[in-house]
Amino acid sequence: MQSLKTEHLQIAYGSQLVIKDLSISLPQGKITAIIGSNGCGKSTFLKAISRIIPIQAGSVLLDGKEIRLQSTKILAQKMAILPQIPEAVEGLTVGELVACGRFPYQKGFGRMSKYDLDYVNWALESTGIAHLKHRDVEALSGGQRQRVWIAMALAQETSIILLDEPTTYLDLCHQLEIMQLLEQLNRTEKKTIIMVLHDLNHAARFADYMIALKEGIVVKAGQPSEVMTTAVLAEVFSIDAQIGKDPRTQKPVCLTYDLLPEQVEQKQISL
């Protein structure tokens, strides 16, 4: 199981600093949810810790070693990332796409080994899509496609999986199915899962650890009960939220919310 942390991380787009001196350790073997308003740096943070984008200053450490010093293939054997809107090559079947997860272990253009094939089949079974193996990816529903992408990440055989808004564009039922699948993979396979989420109640319900970002700075990090508070949500989202407790999960839940008075005044002035 790999450890992942940042030290004084800074990321900029042009002259605009997006992530500012961010130092944090991501819990191993846990589910971490990153929350924050649009443009606060959530997706940028994921891209930085997976080396998709360069950093301006600071370090991202995987197993105590800077990721910039690790080869792309070795990094891909340790960490998988599922972007917000993944795209598959036209004409691929489910089995073919999931098999792409074995790429970091291939040598040249060699064929997959029996172990590779078995691992792909295991990933298909684990995500509940083995019966779709020979279907075209393009013919699937949104929820099914998301399971395929998660299966591909699972086939990559990494201990860390990063996901950027994995429930985007899904209806409530499929959102819940995806979140429960990720929870199952964490509990049974001990995967470290780090994901960006917009749904605060999903974040509080399924995450062991939450990080609240505002303008590239960590406002609060900790257990859901520490982050999902009226004060933190007011600072991060400029909302007045009423927080209760889910009677089934005992996790915090946002019952209702409204704009803070000063936000209402600003909106009225702008109108």
Q: What sort of overall outline do the alpha carbons produce when their principal axes are compared? A: globular
- How many beta-strand segments? 12
User: Which sequence of SSEs, written as H and E, runs from N to C?
Assistant: EEEHEEHEHHHEHEHEEHHEEH
Strand order of the largest sheet: 6-7-8-3-9-10
Helix content: 25-40%
Calculate the terminal CA-CA distance, rounded to whole Å.
53 Å
Oligomer state of the chains in this structure: single chain
Q: Which value, in Å, is the CA radius of gyration?
A: 20 Å
Membrane topology: Peripheral membrane protein
Organism: Seinonella peptonophila
Subcellular location: Cell membrane
GO molecular function, one term: ATP binding
